[in-house]
Write a structure and sequence with these properties.
The chain is mainly alpha-helical and 250 residues long. Among the domains are: 1-33 and 84-91, no CATH class; 114-186, no CATH class; 211-242, no CATH class. 32% of the residues lie in helices and 6% in strands. It is built from seven helices and four strands. The strands form two sheets. Strands 1-2 form a two-stranded antiparallel ribbon. It has a two-stranded antiparallel sheet with strand order 3-4. α3 packs parallel to α5.
Length: 250
Protein backbone atom coordinates (compact mmCIF):
# COMPACT_ATOMS: atom_id res chain seq x y z
CA UNK A 1 0.00 0.00 0.00
CA UNK A 2 1.31 3.43 -0.97
CA UNK A 3 0.20 6.49 1.03
CA UNK A 4 1.08 10.09 0.24
CA UNK A 5 1.71 12.12 3.37
CA UNK A 6 2.68 15.72 4.02
CA UNK A 7 5.33 16.56 6.60
CA UNK A 8 5.03 19.57 8.92
CA UNK A 9 7.65 21.31 6.77
CA UNK A 10 5.27 21.13 3.79
CA UNK A 11 7.13 18.44 1.88
CA UNK A 12 4.99 15.63 0.42
CA UNK A 13 6.44 12.13 0.65
CA UNK A 14 5.21 8.66 -0.34
CA UNK A 15 5.20 5.88 2.24
CA UNK A 16 5.13 2.22 1.17
CA UNK A 17 3.65 -0.27 3.64
CA UNK A 18 4.22 -4.03 3.28
CA UNK A 19 1.84 -6.30 5.25
CA UNK A 20 2.18 -10.02 5.81
CA UNK A 21 -1.48 -10.03 6.92
CA UNK A 22 -3.62 -8.55 4.10
CA UNK A 23 -6.68 -8.25 6.36
CA UNK A 24 -4.90 -5.43 8.18
CA UNK A 25 -5.37 -3.25 5.09
CA UNK A 26 -9.12 -3.22 5.72
CA UNK A 27 -8.51 -0.84 8.63
CA UNK A 28 -5.73 1.45 7.32
CA UNK A 29 -4.05 3.65 9.86
CA UNK A 30 -2.29 6.86 9.07
CA UNK A 31 1.42 6.46 9.70
CA UNK A 32 2.97 8.68 12.35
CA UNK A 33 4.33 11.96 11.04
CA UNK A 34 8.06 12.16 10.72
CA UNK A 35 9.90 14.61 13.03
CA UNK A 36 10.38 18.06 11.55
CA UNK A 37 14.13 17.75 11.59
CA UNK A 38 16.02 14.59 10.77
CA UNK A 39 18.18 13.24 13.54
CA UNK A 40 21.79 14.32 13.01
CA UNK A 41 24.55 11.74 13.25
CA UNK A 42 26.65 11.51 16.38
CA UNK A 43 29.45 14.10 16.63
CA UNK A 44 27.90 16.43 14.05
CA UNK A 45 26.77 19.95 14.85
CA UNK A 46 23.63 21.43 13.45
CA UNK A 47 24.19 24.32 11.07
CA UNK A 48 22.85 27.62 12.42
CA UNK A 49 19.81 28.96 10.67
CA UNK A 50 20.20 32.59 9.66
CA UNK A 51 16.96 34.54 9.89
CA UNK A 52 16.97 37.84 7.97
CA UNK A 53 16.35 40.85 10.21
CA UNK A 54 13.47 43.10 9.30
CA UNK A 55 14.43 46.27 7.50
CA UNK A 56 14.34 49.40 9.68
CA UNK A 57 11.85 51.98 8.65
CA UNK A 58 12.81 55.70 8.77
CA UNK A 59 11.65 57.72 11.71
CA UNK A 60 8.63 59.82 11.15
CA UNK A 61 9.16 63.59 11.31
CA UNK A 62 8.35 65.30 14.56
CA UNK A 63 9.41 62.34 16.79
CA UNK A 64 13.22 62.45 16.84
CA UNK A 65 14.99 59.63 18.65
CA UNK A 66 11.80 57.50 18.97
CA UNK A 67 12.03 54.30 16.98
CA UNK A 68 8.93 52.99 15.26
CA UNK A 69 7.41 49.78 16.61
CA UNK A 70 7.42 47.02 13.96
CA UNK A 71 4.59 44.47 13.78
CA UNK A 72 5.44 40.75 13.84
CA UNK A 73 5.15 39.02 10.48
CA UNK A 74 1.97 36.91 10.06
CA UNK A 75 2.32 33.21 10.78
CA UNK A 76 1.29 31.07 7.78
CA UNK A 77 -1.53 28.59 8.49
CA UNK A 78 -0.52 24.96 8.94
CA UNK A 79 -0.82 22.80 5.82
CA UNK A 80 -3.97 20.68 5.62
CA UNK A 81 -3.64 17.10 6.74
CA UNK A 82 -3.59 14.57 3.94
CA UNK A 83 -5.68 11.54 4.78
CA UNK A 84 -4.50 8.20 3.41
CA UNK A 85 -6.44 6.90 0.40
CA UNK A 86 -8.96 4.14 0.82
CA UNK A 87 -7.56 0.66 0.60
CA UNK A 88 -8.03 -1.12 -2.73
CA UNK A 89 -7.73 -4.55 -1.14
CA UNK A 90 -11.03 -6.47 -1.22
CA UNK A 91 -10.87 -9.92 0.40
CA UNK A 92 -12.57 -12.73 -1.52
CA UNK A 93 -12.89 -14.91 1.57
CA UNK A 94 -14.65 -13.43 4.62
CA UNK A 95 -12.62 -13.06 7.76
CA UNK A 96 -12.99 -15.76 10.44
CA UNK A 97 -14.52 -13.19 12.76
CA UNK A 98 -17.15 -12.07 10.20
CA UNK A 99 -20.75 -12.71 11.31
CA UNK A 100 -22.28 -15.79 9.71
CA UNK A 101 -25.81 -15.77 8.28
CA UNK A 102 -28.42 -17.55 10.39
CA UNK A 103 -29.24 -21.12 9.32
CA UNK A 104 -32.35 -21.71 7.27
CA UNK A 105 -35.34 -23.08 9.19
CA UNK A 106 -36.52 -26.64 8.76
CA UNK A 107 -39.22 -26.89 6.05
CA UNK A 108 -42.79 -27.59 7.08
CA UNK A 109 -45.74 -28.85 5.00
CA UNK A 110 -48.13 -26.19 3.74
CA UNK A 111 -51.12 -28.26 4.92
CA UNK A 112 -50.06 -30.50 7.82
CA UNK A 113 -52.25 -33.54 8.32
CA UNK A 114 -52.13 -36.43 10.81
CA UNK A 115 -51.40 -38.84 7.94
CA UNK A 116 -48.27 -36.93 6.91
CA UNK A 117 -47.07 -36.72 10.51
CA UNK A 118 -47.50 -40.48 11.06
CA UNK A 119 -45.76 -41.33 7.79
CA UNK A 120 -42.82 -39.00 8.57
CA UNK A 121 -42.46 -40.37 12.11
CA UNK A 122 -42.47 -43.96 10.85
CA UNK A 123 -39.92 -43.11 8.18
CA UNK A 124 -37.47 -41.58 10.69
CA UNK A 125 -37.95 -44.38 13.20
CA UNK A 126 -37.20 -47.00 10.52
CA UNK A 127 -34.16 -45.10 9.16
CA UNK A 128 -31.67 -46.89 11.45
CA UNK A 129 -32.62 -50.25 9.90
CA UNK A 130 -31.25 -49.13 6.51
CA UNK A 131 -28.38 -46.96 7.84
CA UNK A 132 -27.29 -47.87 11.40
CA UNK A 133 -25.24 -44.67 11.81
CA UNK A 134 -28.50 -42.67 11.62
CA UNK A 135 -29.96 -43.87 14.89
CA UNK A 136 -32.16 -41.06 16.23
CA UNK A 137 -33.67 -40.35 19.59
CA UNK A 138 -37.38 -39.77 20.14
CA UNK A 139 -36.76 -36.02 20.48
CA UNK A 140 -34.87 -35.93 17.18
CA UNK A 141 -37.66 -37.82 15.43
CA UNK A 142 -40.28 -35.32 16.63
CA UNK A 143 -38.07 -32.37 15.64
CA UNK A 144 -37.32 -33.69 12.11
CA UNK A 145 -40.79 -35.06 11.30
CA UNK A 146 -42.11 -31.77 9.77
CA UNK A 147 -39.19 -31.72 7.33
CA UNK A 148 -39.89 -35.26 6.10
CA UNK A 149 -43.60 -34.40 5.89
CA UNK A 150 -42.74 -31.48 3.60
CA UNK A 151 -40.88 -33.87 1.29
CA UNK A 152 -43.80 -36.34 1.28
CA UNK A 153 -46.24 -33.52 0.57
CA UNK A 154 -44.23 -32.59 -2.53
CA UNK A 155 -44.53 -36.08 -3.96
CA UNK A 156 -41.14 -37.52 -2.95
CA UNK A 157 -41.10 -41.29 -2.45
CA UNK A 158 -39.69 -42.79 0.78
CA UNK A 159 -36.83 -44.51 -1.09
CA UNK A 160 -35.86 -41.21 -2.74
CA UNK A 161 -35.86 -39.41 0.61
CA UNK A 162 -33.82 -42.17 2.23
CA UNK A 163 -31.12 -42.04 -0.45
CA UNK A 164 -30.98 -38.25 -0.37
CA UNK A 165 -30.54 -38.20 3.42
CA UNK A 166 -28.22 -41.16 4.04
CA UNK A 167 -26.01 -41.44 0.92
CA UNK A 168 -22.31 -40.51 1.27
CA UNK A 169 -22.22 -39.65 5.01
CA UNK A 170 -19.01 -38.32 6.61
CA UNK A 171 -16.53 -40.78 8.03
CA UNK A 172 -17.00 -39.70 11.65
CA UNK A 173 -20.70 -38.88 12.00
CA UNK A 174 -21.09 -37.42 15.49
CA UNK A 175 -24.45 -35.66 15.13
CA UNK A 176 -26.72 -37.51 12.66
CA UNK A 177 -29.71 -35.31 13.52
CA UNK A 178 -27.85 -32.14 12.45
CA UNK A 179 -26.85 -33.73 9.14
CA UNK A 180 -30.42 -34.83 8.48
CA UNK A 181 -31.72 -31.33 9.26
CA UNK A 182 -29.20 -29.77 6.89
CA UNK A 183 -30.05 -32.15 4.02
CA UNK A 184 -33.80 -31.87 4.60
CA UNK A 185 -33.47 -28.08 4.29
CA UNK A 186 -30.94 -27.72 1.47
CA UNK A 187 -32.09 -30.61 -0.76
CA UNK A 188 -35.82 -29.89 -0.55
CA UNK A 189 -37.38 -30.66 -3.97
CA UNK A 190 -39.59 -28.05 -5.67
CA UNK A 191 -43.37 -28.33 -5.32
CA UNK A 192 -45.16 -30.23 -8.09
CA UNK A 193 -46.64 -28.09 -10.87
CA UNK A 194 -50.25 -27.04 -10.56
CA UNK A 195 -53.11 -27.52 -12.97
CA UNK A 196 -52.52 -24.12 -14.56
CA UNK A 197 -48.85 -24.89 -15.13
CA UNK A 198 -49.69 -28.21 -16.79
CA UNK A 199 -52.31 -26.49 -18.94
CA UNK A 200 -49.71 -23.99 -20.11
CA UNK A 201 -47.45 -26.87 -21.17
CA UNK A 202 -50.30 -28.47 -23.13
CA UNK A 203 -50.92 -25.35 -25.24
CA UNK A 204 -50.07 -25.75 -28.94
CA UNK A 205 -46.90 -24.05 -29.97
CA UNK A 206 -46.73 -21.44 -32.75
CA UNK A 207 -45.82 -23.03 -36.06
CA UNK A 208 -43.05 -21.26 -37.95
CA UNK A 209 -43.22 -21.43 -41.73
CA UNK A 210 -39.90 -22.72 -43.12
CA UNK A 211 -37.79 -21.04 -45.79
CA UNK A 212 -37.89 -22.37 -49.36
CA UNK A 213 -35.75 -21.52 -52.42
CA UNK A 214 -37.49 -20.33 -55.56
CA UNK A 215 -37.07 -22.77 -58.44
CA UNK A 216 -36.69 -19.93 -60.95
CA UNK A 217 -34.65 -17.14 -59.33
CA UNK A 218 -33.34 -19.05 -56.27
CA UNK A 219 -34.72 -16.39 -53.92
CA UNK A 220 -35.43 -17.47 -50.32
CA UNK A 221 -39.05 -17.07 -49.16
CA UNK A 222 -41.33 -18.60 -46.57
CA UNK A 223 -43.81 -21.24 -47.74
CA UNK A 224 -44.85 -24.65 -46.44
CA UNK A 225 -44.19 -26.31 -49.83
CA UNK A 226 -41.44 -25.67 -52.41
CA UNK A 227 -42.24 -23.74 -55.59
CA UNK A 228 -41.86 -20.23 -57.00
CA UNK A 229 -41.70 -16.88 -55.20
CA UNK A 230 -44.38 -14.18 -55.62
CA UNK A 231 -42.55 -12.20 -58.30
CA UNK A 232 -41.86 -15.28 -60.38
CA UNK A 233 -45.48 -16.43 -60.06
CA UNK A 234 -46.79 -13.00 -61.16
CA UNK A 235 -44.34 -12.86 -64.06
CA UNK A 236 -45.29 -16.37 -65.10
CA UNK A 237 -49.03 -15.61 -64.92
CA UNK A 238 -48.54 -12.42 -66.94
CA UNK A 239 -46.58 -14.27 -69.59
CA UNK A 240 -49.21 -17.01 -69.84
CA UNK A 241 -51.96 -14.40 -70.12
CA UNK A 242 -50.14 -12.67 -72.99
CA UNK A 243 -49.63 -16.01 -74.76
CA UNK A 244 -53.32 -16.85 -74.42
CA UNK A 245 -54.29 -13.41 -75.74
CA UNK A 246 -52.00 -13.87 -78.75
CA UNK A 247 -53.52 -17.25 -79.58
CA UNK A 248 -57.03 -15.82 -79.33
CA UNK A 249 -56.19 -12.97 -81.68
CA UNK A 250 -54.66 -15.33 -84.19
Amino acid sequence: QRVRDRLPSGRVITRTVFCNQPTALLRPRRPAAAPPHAQAPAGAQAAPVRVPAPAARPEQPGTPGRPETLAAPPVPPPPPAVSPPASLFVPLVPAPTAPKPPPRPLPHPSEPTPELDRAATAFLSDLCRHAPQFTLSETDVRRLAPGVAAWLERGARPDTIRHALTDDPPNLLKHPAKLLKYRLTELLPPPPPGIRDLAALARPRITVTPFQTCDACERAFRTPTPGHCRDCREHREHREHRSEATRTAA
